[in-house]
Design a protein that fits this description.
11 strands, mainly beta, about 120 residues
């Protein structure tokens, strides 16, 4: 089972990027999906999460109003639209899948499957 994240890149402050995460090996349509990020020498931190039905989302305060998480269960894909990017958003971004829980879990221990990460670098 793999979660393939893509869409990262090098952008300037204020630009936008859309990350995608497409699991392979099984369907994750009933799982909660999350995005985390990790900068060099820092712990992995929560970014956003979404329930399987897209009825509930949760965001880190640092990205609220700028990032949007969504999913298309027909394509077995979850997205992270990132607008108004800042240099402090620079990190490796990881998608994750976990069992459905409410409230949405914001800790790494709440997720069972992880992708390999995609790098986002925002220059000032």
């Amino acid at each position: 089972v793999q979660l393939q994240a893509s869409g990262g890149g090098l952008v300037q402050a204020g630009d936008s990027l859309r990350l995608s995460c497409a699991p392979s090996g099984r369907t994750f349509s009933t799982y909660t999906m999350g995005w985390f990020r990790q900068a060099p020498e820092k712990e992995r931190e929560f970014v956003a999460a979404i329930t399987w039905s897209s009825g509930s989302t949760r965001y880190a305060d640092s990205v609220k109003g700028r990032f949007t998480i969504s999913r298309d269960n027909t394509k077995n894909t979850v997205y992270l639209q990132m607008n108004s990017l800042k240099p402090e958003d620079t990190a490796g971004y990881y998608c994750a899948a976990g069992p459905p829980r409410l409230p949405l879990v914001i800790t790494t221990t709440g997720y069972d499957y992880w992708g390999q990460g995609t790098q986002v670098t925002v220059s000032s």
